[in-house]
């Protein structure tokens, strides 16, 4: 069954189910109808095959420009879906600002919403918050705070409580969404969600394992002295940061972006990504536990979120959005085929599902895979197909 057919079937199932109508209300028509119309338009433009389903995903998740052949009505519906995703992004980002070990996967939340096209109300801030809350819980924790008297200079310690966002397992998240929706999530739904998620986030296998030069100076320290201009996020410093991560021997764990991998973080990532992390747990434990780790796009995001003053990686800061490898490529406005790559350290290099950082001289630093970690490779020996300027990074 095609992506379009699955989504349309999901919409029809809810609207035809009596309990679903009572639970959700007729206002769901305002949410489902746009996507059904999108599918109809796409199918009318051609054979309605995979390329059109993929085009719908790309149109909704990115700011692609439309040709004159695309009807205005279709553009309006895409824009409405984009606005809904913007609200979801705000809700997830706010929740993740309180996270510690791991964060809610925004790409997964958006993929689920796209496939099920669900909202308990019109796409409002409240509806987005309710949907995002299906993917996490909160915990109250205690920490010791040091307070300094400005007049005397004396310090005292006190205990305070604070709230932490804790991502739920994939199964728990799906169960919450199913309860909110009022119907079960079928195997077809899951398959379709995985397809959309892979389109926007990338694939765990795309980087390929085995190969590439490892760094020889293992360290968990973050160093701002390597940056030429700490006050801006620029291409030269992205390259320098990536090389530092390589020299420091960073590892690879899906869903991570530069934090030191603790046992608690590993367990949470395993629950979120049972295949992409749980399936490689023995390798992760033997090679990366206790060190800094990132996945391919997480390496780039960790630079975007790096605070050189506090020497910390702060999720969602400095205007760098939380996106997957493919979505980062789709969103780039300056890009080209790999045979046209200019000699500019700090460009990203991309192939479907995987992304790395070009560091100059024909070399790439990439978080390649669970077995490899962050490695330096020769661009000519890899299978990258395109280069791009990373959004929110300054290129001279």
Describe the protein in words.
This protein is an alpha+beta fold and 396 residues long. It has 2 domains: 3-135 and 170-201, no CATH class; 213-388, no CATH class. The chain has 14 helices and 13 strands. It has helices at 3-16, 18-24, 28-44, 50-61, 72-96, 106-116, 125-132, 170-181, 187-201, 235-247, 263-272, 281-287, 296-304, 325-331, and strands spanning 136-148, 155-167, 213-214, 257-260, 292-294, 306-307, 312-313, 335-337, 348-351, 354-360, 363-369, 373-378, 386-388. The strands form 4 sheets. The protein has a 7-stranded antiparallel β-sheet with strand order 3-12-11-10-9-13-8. A hairpin with a 2-residue loop joins strand 9 and strand 10 (354-360). The chain is globular, with a radius of gyration of 22 Å. Mean pLDDT is 84; it is low at 1-52 and 118-122.
Please provide a brief summary of the model:
The chain is built from 14 helices and 13 strands. By secondary structure, the chain is an alpha+beta fold.
Helix amount = 40-55%
What spatial order of strands do you see in the largest sheet? 3-12-11-10-9-13-8
Mean pLDDT: 84
Element string (H = helix, E = strand): HHHHHHHEEHHEHEHHEHEEHEEEEEE
Largest sheet: 7 strands, antiparallel
Question: Number of DSSP strands?
Answer: 13
Cα-based radius of gyration, to the nearest Å: 22 Å
Structural class: alpha+beta
